[in-house]
Amino acid sequence: MEQQIRTFGDPVLKSKASAVTDVDGKIARLVDDMFDSLYTTDTGCALAAPQIGVQKQVIVWDIDDEPMALVNPVVVESAGEFVYTEGCLSIPELFVDILRPNQVLIRGITLDGEEVEIEADDFLGRVFQHEIDHLNGVLMFDRMTPEQRKEAMAEYRRIQEAPQAPQRRRLKLR
Ligand code: ZN
User: Fold this and answer.
1) 171 vs 93: CA distance, rounded Å
2) pLDDT confidence of residue 174
3) pTM (two decimals)
4) How far is ligand 1, taken at its centre, from the CA of residue 139, in Å?
5) How many angstroms separate the alpha carbon of residue 90 from the centre of ligand 1?
6) DSSP conformation letters of 116-163
7) What are the chain's domains?
8) Low-confidence ranges of the chain (pLDDT < 50)
9) Which residues are identified as catalytic?
10) pLDDT score at 98
11) Could you tell me which residues are beta bridge partners of residue 118?
12) Whole-number pLDDT of residue 170
């Protein structure tokens, strides 16, 4: 069932999610809810459980019509550097160039209870890093330079105060 996507300012986004101990039917239902919620957005391709108010370590993503979920995901290794213009369903309409590692090795558990490792880079690598951050209460703002954060916060306030804003803005920051 579709849930409301929590937005910046909601304390659930700043708290750490708990590890899942049993990958059971409850988790399968959570994953269904996460996809239902994700698919109500026109731009989202991934979601972390805290974004629908559930403090559990679960992420889902759907890139190229392949819905996937991972439980207790962690970044095991990372390398390289890569600037990508990130957006977040919990910080609507704000897009900021953020520098992060390019390649990552992720470890987690599938819905079948199997431990897997996934290597990813570029866009998918970025999606994993962004969603796993959500499980640790870390938001895009926390990955910006102090200068970027100041500008991005001001821009986000402007966006919030202009609910009729007709088009998406793209904020380019160094
Ligand atoms: Zn996000």
Assistant:
1) 10
2) 47
3) 0.91
4) 7
5) 6
6) EEEEE-HHHHHHHHHHHHHHTT--GGGGS-HHHHHHHHHHHHHHHH-T
7) 11-171 (3.90.45.10)
8) 174
9) 131
10) 97
11) 106
12) 55
Q: Going by C-beta distance under 8 Å and a sequence separation of 6 or more, which residues neighbour residue 138?
A: none
Residue 145, Cβ neighbours under 10 Å: how many?
13
Tokens of 155: 């821009």
- For residue 1, the Cα-to-chain-centroid distance in whole angstroms is 19
Q: How remote is the CA of residue 8 from the centroid of ligand 1, in Å?
A: 10
The answer to whether the Cα torsion of 157, 162, 163, 169 is positive or negative is: negative
The residues, ordered by sequence, that sit 6+ positions from 157 with a Cβ below 8 Å of its Cβ are: none
What is the pLDDT, as a whole number, of residue 162? Answer: 83
Phi, psi of 54 (to 5 degrees): -110, 120
Query: If you measure from the C-alpha of residue 91 to the centroid of ligand 1, how many angstroms do you get, rounded to a whole number?
Result: 7
How far does the centroid of ligand 1 lie from the alpha carbon of residue 114, in Å? 26
